[in-house]
């Protein structure tokens, strides 16, 4: 006859065996998911949540529908959904969140995770949304660091880093090699092409040559979309893990991005990606990597290699802070800092940010029209 103690032990070992098989040993991560705004409908997002819940994640679904096995937090629209998501993160009701079209502050970029078609390798694209800095080369240097942090949190001990062959690639490469020479542990990938090198070609993107592919966020966004939806003609993202977590120094909210055309499989993978980052202690990994990079002279290296931003004025002080709910779009990334400071000079509090379609200036609703006129007159907006 089986005793209650033996039954308990048997159930415990079965749970451990299931956890090892599914990679879910330890507390179940709690992830919030917003469902409004998808071009494929809320049912598609809900289906992704259910797939993730079956894999051992506690999902809080923020939307208008409910389903057994999911905690539902009702919200009428995407704006209310974001407010409730951020409140849940602040209150530590959830460990992380997955959402669409979230405007990260400048200094934060997201690290996408894709499956490359030639060999089925996973690759991190640094970055896919957001922007790590207002300077192109500075952004790529920081993106490399953010990609390394994310890859390490996902279990890659020494990820290889390659730089996509775009404007600024050679400056970014020199800067990263100088950082490595100063003592920061950085392993460079080698191109699959005959002439080699750590600057990656299109062939390397398809093959997944590096663990971390460094690029600017707009190029990375296009690459992520293509690798996610090339099998569907671009109307439905069927592969990969979405656009990834917002990473940046001092940023301690785990928010991952999916597209408004991400299918249920991608949404489920994005939630699993968030859970993996929680288990991999991404913020602790980030703290160690940032400390090591600073020790190797990160600030001096960035200052040495970054380009000059048009019209920037480091002495312009910000007016008193206001609630900024309006967004001005259409700003060139290289002009973003100068445009914000121009508004400060006019007594208008403004913040820079990055949405899914590019840079934004965030400003109070009552100042939005006047700010747009000023920026148009100075040539920052069409």
Automatic annotation (TrEMBL):
The active site is at residue 356. One of its GO terms (biological process) is fatty acid biosynthetic process. It comes from the Bacteria. It holds the Pfam family FA_synthesis. InterPro entries: FA_synthesis, Gly_reductase_pC_asu. One of its GO terms (molecular function) is acyltransferase activity, transferring groups other than amino-acyl groups. This is Glycine reductase. It comes from Megasphaera cerevisiae DSM 20462.
